[in-house]
Each structure stands twice: as structure tokens, then as C-alpha cells.
Design goal:
The chain has about 950 residues and is mostly helical. Among the domains are: about 615-705, Alpha Horseshoe (Serine Threonine Protein Phosphatase 5, Tetratricopeptide repeat); about 710-810, Serine Threonine Protein Phosphatase 5, Tetratricopeptide repeat, CATH 1.25.40; about 845-964, 2-Layer Sandwich (Alpha-Beta Plaits). The protein contains 41 helices and four strands. Strands 2-3-1-4 form a four-stranded antiparallel sheet, with helices on both faces.
Length: about 950
Amino acid sequence: MKIAKITFLTALLPLIIFFGNSCAPQKNRDGSFISKTYHNMTARYNGYFNANYKLDQVYNGIEDGQEDDFSQEVIDLYVHNDQEQTSSYSSDLQTVIKKSSRVIKMHKYSKWADDCYFLVGQSHYLKGNYNSAQKTFQYISSNYDVRQRKIDRKKRRRLEKKQKRKKEKERKQARRASKRKGNFFYELFNKDEEEKNGNEQPGDEMSVEEKAQKEKKIAKMRRTPFHFLRHKPIRYRAMVWLVKSYVQQEKFSEAQSVLTVLKSDEDFPYRLNGELRKAQAYYNIEREDYEDAIRPLRLAIEYTNKRKDKARLYYVLAQLYENTSSLSLAFQTYQKVLDHNPPYEMAFNAKMAMANLSGEDPRLATGNLEQQLKDMLDDDKNIEYFDQIYYALAELALKNNNEQKAINYLNKSIRSSKDNDQQKAKSYLKIADLQFKDGEYSKAQPYYDSTLTVLNQKHERYSDIRQRNSILKNVVDKQEIISEQDSLLRIASMAEDEREEYVQDLIEKKREQRKKEQQEKQASKLAKQGDDQGQKGPQGGKWYFYNQNAKSSGYNAFAQKWGDRKLEDNWRRSTKSGFSSSGDKTEGAGEDTLAAGEGGDELSKEKMLAQIPTSQEEQQQSKQKMINAYYELGTIYKNELENQQKALATFDELDSKFKGYNIEPKVFYQLYLLHGKAGNSSKQKTYKQRILNKYPESKYAKIIRDPGYFKKQEQKQQKVKDYYANSYTIYKQQYYDSTIQRCVMADSLFKLDSLAPRFRLLKAYAQGQKGDFTAYQTTLKQFTRDYPDHSLRKHVEDLLFYVREYNKDTTVKQEKPEMKYELDTAATEEEAVTVQFNYNPGTEHYFILSFKTDTIQANKLINQLSDFNSRNYSLKPLKVKSVISNKSANIIMVRTFKNQQDAMKYYNLFMNQEDVFENTSRESLNISVISQQNMKTLIQKGGTGQYQKFFVDRYPIQKEQKEK
């Protein structure tokens, strides 16, 4: 027995040595058969198997966690394109890359090296590194091509020769048969041959189904008996993924080139036709070319076998039909989605889409649509979709012109929405838009505000909604000021006893209200505790409201942030009061202010009474607040909301409510302009006469009497500018005495407004350059005293500091103050991101003013710009808008100009008129013109300072303006 074992091991030893030597890593691809077999087997069943298994787990996880946004025009064709979801698998994908790279390094010339490269490329793609994925797929395409194509070509030729010999043999047999039995079989054979070859004309287009069947027959004809055993090269799959990588980077021309190559390649494998057509459809969808995406997607469906995959493709196809107005085909295709047993959420949305299509085209309806939707509310499986059902009912109500019913349904949609922020945002936004359309701005504002709390910041309307919400918030603030001051004045007009009795009643009402709220809070807490203890829902359940731990955690998180709040609409707003039209005043707003007390906590009668304006001075201040709020509200209606009717009503109410107020000529002029736009010539004439009779020396009267008034003013301003420019030139030539003399004479020669600070500073510079630091210091001090709000005040204070330091110790050499006037007016703050702007002089342009939001009141600038447009561009429909950028800057925009030339004409005219802005220094503003595309970049990425430099460098600004 031992001898037999020894003999066996002795015989086995050479084989072990042989295999051991052949298993070493090969540097040369021309190894022995055993070496190649070893490397192929080890690469496939060791490293590649593990990496591929890990990647399959990632795909399964992505698919299981996929949450489609069915509110999109077209859902994602590929479930793995959701970057937010795939990013959570970064560590697993990195493991796939490491394992695959190890296989490539150790088994470089195995048949599975290209497959490992493909795993690396997929991993980069899923991680969002599309450029790295692109390079990997390009490498596979370039380096794993020639050898395999030659092998395939030889095998195909052998197969074609074999088939040709077989056909020739059959043809001879048919001829012999026809001679014996007549021509019947010969004609039948020729007919069959014609049917096999096809009788299509060059212009005929094969149907999708026929094309798929033909390609399937060709693939079967080329298939070898043991095709399932051979290694399938990955190059063509890599090229399909290369198309996807290009599309993700929006390199559409490169993607189109690869698609063209693949479609014309006769060696392209049949098994990948589905992937190729799907990639072609994806390419067209991302370009929003929905019409051209339909045919390749239909082909992709024909090549797809899995029902679940087909259901998704059918859903996308239905959406494409819907977006190309093929409603009947869309309806039929949604039905095919339901036939393929899709996930419940997809099935539900397919039914909702069919319901919406039935509403648009009654011919598609299979019954009472509203009743069908209500029946869906009776199905417990639809509980988490109630928000979408109510939204569909709201859409149906709007089609039937029942807006109030639609709003009721939308509010139900909001209340029933649990964790679907997308649908909640849609419902909030729909109500907001409806109220805005009706001019109910104070009702629309809280809904826009709520929309922003749940809306994705990448939404195409996000910045527009944020801007509109800001404008409407301003409207609500002005309305609240008017309502509050009006209520306080009404209470102040009561007799003292009546006033005290009124306040006491108000306190009692508020106490009752607080007591009721406390009881509701307590009941809410008890109900919650009962839910926690009494209900035994599955703790690990997927649905939130079956998981008591999740409910308790959510309740505590809410309570920490918001406190105990009653379930009601607009719960986020601290002031949930409604307004009426026109003035939209709130009844009792002043009462709420009183009831809150100064601290907002105690209902103190003394504190409430102290807030009532009882003295004449306090009442005058209260009235002035109302006057200012009315005027600002009217200008917002007129300029920002472009609601001329509400603007007219607001200014009319202001004029009828107060007499002899301080801004009466401005209000008269606004009414003069608005009545003119409305075509009320008699009213316009009335306000014209009121301005001329009551305020004959005002600038508004001068504008009405003399349309050329501002041109004359421009000429006067130009004289002052020329005088200043000459004075500055003399200063630069170092004639300091002459400079000082000209600055002193300027006060008597001209009526200085905006240029007065410049003359004062120029005088100080000249005194400093002469060495007369006492006079220099005196002039700088006069500047800070006379112009406390000027933008150059900080610069002047710095100069005074240097002078004081210089005078402290004359033995220590101090740096002499720099006498430089050309200060940079661009934004001084450093911006971390470099923003790229493009010069497009032939496109539409805007005129813009940008400034920090906490330094200047935007409404005043808008009003003054509108006045400037009324004087100089009354025949051109220019609009003034306020835009909030994402860099804490405010931008006011005048639009639209045909091109750069027209915009620069406006810019030059504006810069030559010094009195456009009252009490606002131009040095605190960035003033420029901008193309439409650059404006989008500026709003999205910021960079006002960078754009100002770009503007100065690229646009033809007049010389004297650059010097300012």
C-alpha cells in the first residue's frame, strides 16, 4: 500500500512542477496553452467574479432604492443615473475598481482583462466621474478591437461559405425535382427565395417589429453551435456606455459619432441591439428631441425580455407620446405599462396619467373621471398617494372653471402629503400661482414661502419663485404697516374711557384664545401618547406612520424646531392674517400688535395703552408711516408686479385719505402717468392741472410744461462736468493753487448736487499736495460733516487718521497719505469662485445696478429709475425689475434692449444725468449693461465684482465715465 502511494506521488511530482512553472505571471502574451488557461480561469473565477458580484449588488441596491420623480416630463431612462442615490455606494464602487485593477495587473493578457476594464468604467460612471469613465471606455474600444474582429470575420466567412454550399445543393435538388414533376416546385422555390430576400424598395421603411425580427433571424444564422461557451468581447458594450458618458457630459456631437459607427458596424452583436437602441433614445431625450427618441425606444422594447424593464420603457415611451401631443398613443402605451405588472407606484402614476389624458381628450375617457379618482381615495393602498389624487381632482376642477373647488382640493393635497416634497411643492405652487393670477398677493405670498421650504433648489422656477416671494413679502409688510397704523389711529380716536374698555375686552378675548390653544395642545399631546402606547404597528415597517419609533422621533424633532403648533394652513407664518384687495388691509392687525405687548408674552393693559399714539406728534408719525407705506406699495404694484390697476387704486386711496402730505407732488405725478396709460384722459388732465396749480416750481411741473426740460438739465450738468474735468486736469498738472481756486468758485458758478463732494475732495487733495496739512485736515473734516452718508466717507476718514498719526510724532517717519482719486468702484469683496462671462454684443442686453442688500433701499432706486424711463423713454416699453442674486447682492434690471449698442446709449444717457438718484451716491453702485446669457450666469453663480471688471474691459464706455 505504501509502495503504491509512493509510486503515485512520484508519478504526480513532474505534473505538479510543470503546472507550478506554467502558473507564474506571464510578461509575454505568447504563453503555453496551460499558462493561458490558468490566467483566463484565475482572472474569471477569482478577481473578476468577486468584482462583478460586488457591482451586481450595487445595481440591485440602486434599483431597490430608486424613487422616481413622476412629475418630470420624462422619468430617467436608466435607474442608475440618479447621482444622489449612487453616491452612497462610493466605497463599494471603489472596491470594484481595486479588485478589477488587481486582475488587470496580474493577468494582463487574459481574455477577461477587457471585462475588468469595463467594470472599472462602469464604477467611474456610477460615481459620477464621467470623464474618467469616458477615458476607460475609449481605451477598451481602441485596444480590444483588431484581433477579435479578425477572428470573428474568419469564422463568419467560413459560415457563409458553408451556407452558400448548402443553398447551391438545395437549388440543384429543386431543379432535378422540377424536371420530373413539372415547374410547380421550381416556381414555389423561387417564390420562397424572393420572400426570403425581400421585395422592399429602397425608399420603404420597415416597421419596428419587422426590423427586430429580421435582425433576430440574421443573428440566429450567424450563431455557432457552441456560442454560449465562448467568451464574449466587451468592446461593443463599452462603446454603448461611451455614448452614455458623452451624453452625461453634454458632448452630444461625440455621442452622435459613436452611435453612427455602431449602427453601421456589420459585426455589432444582436444581443446588444436593445442596449444600443436604448442609448440612442437616451441621447435624443437628453437633447429634448422627443420625436426622434420614439422609434429607437420602440426598438429597445422589442429587444427587451424582462417584464419589469419593459414596463419602465413603456412608461417613458408613453411620456414621449404625451409630450409630442400623441394623446391616444400615450393612453394606449400607459395601458401597456399596466399590462406588464410594474411596481405599484409606477402603476398608480400610469393610472393618474391616463386620468389626466381622459380629462384633456374626452374621447379617451372610459367613465366618469371625477368619480374614478374619488374611488381611488377609497382604496387603502393609495393612502400615501392621496396628495397626487387630490391634485388630479384639482386639475379637473380647473378645467371645469371651478377655481375655489380646485383650491380646496389642493389644500387637501397638502394636508395629506406625508413625505412627498415634490408633490407638496407642486400643490403649494399651484395655489400660489392661482392667487397671484387673481391679484390676491397677500394670500399668494405664504404659499410661495411654503413652496420654497420644500422645493428642490435645482427646479427651473426656483429663482423666479424666490424673487416673487421677496416682492410679495414686501407687499405684505407694507399692507401690515398700513393696517396696523390705521387700527392704532382708530383706537386713539376713541374717548379715554371707551379706549380702556376696548383694550380690556381685547385682553379678555386674547386670554380666551390662549386658553383654547393650550387645551388643543394638551389634547394633541395626549392623542400622541395614546398612539405610542395603544397602536402596535410593525416597528420596522417601511411606511412612516406604522413605525412608532419614527413617529416619536419626528414629533420630537418638529417640537424642538417649531414648538407645539396647531394643525392649520400657513402654520410657518407668525402672522397669518388675510388682506382684502386694493389696500388689502387686515382687520385687527393693530389689535394683534397691542395684544402681543412690547415683549410679546404678557397681556399688559399698561403696555398696550402705551403703544397707542395719543399725542399729536405720535399721530403725525403714525400717519407718515402710512403715507410712505402707501407710496411704496403703489410703486411695487406699478413697477415690479406690473399691475397698473392696483397701483392706480393704491395711489387714489392715498390721495383721498390724506391732504397736504409731504410727497403729494410725487403722488400726483404717478396718478398723472397711470391715468395716461389707462386711457383716462380727463383724469390725467385733472392731475396735470393739480401739479401745475399747486406745485408750479416742482420738477414734475417743469417736466409737464417742457418736455425738453431734462435735456436742458443735461446740458447744465455737462457744463459742470466739463468744469470739473478741467479742474482735475489742472490738478494732475500740479497747478494746485489754480485747482483750489476753481473748486471754491464752483459753489458760486453752479448749483452743485452730486458733484459737490468731488469738488470738496479735489480741493483737499490740492491742499495736501501743497503741504498745507492744516487746511487739508480742515477740508476733510468738513467733508465728513457735510456728507455723512457719502460712499467716500470711509476713504476720507482713513486719510484723516493718517494725518493725525503723522502729526503725533514728527520724529518718526510716517507714510504720506496717498493723494489718489481714481478709486475702484467695483465690488471689493473677494469672490472665491471665478465666473466666466462671454462677450456677445449682438444679443439682447439689460441695464443693471448691483449693490449690497443691506446698504440701499431697492424700492427707491426702482421708483427713480422708472421716473427716468418715463422722462426719456416714454415710447419704449422698458421694464424695471428687482433680482436677488445668490451672493447676498441685489440687482435692479432695466430690460430689454435689442443689442449692446442700444443698451450703451441708455447707459451713457443715464451716466450723464446726475440727478437720477436722490440721496444715493453712485459710488455705492455697480452700474453696467449685460447680455441675456451673462445675466443668467450672474444670477446663478454671482460675481458682480468680476462682471464689473469684465464690463469695463470689454464695453465702449465714454472716457470721462471711466475717470470717475
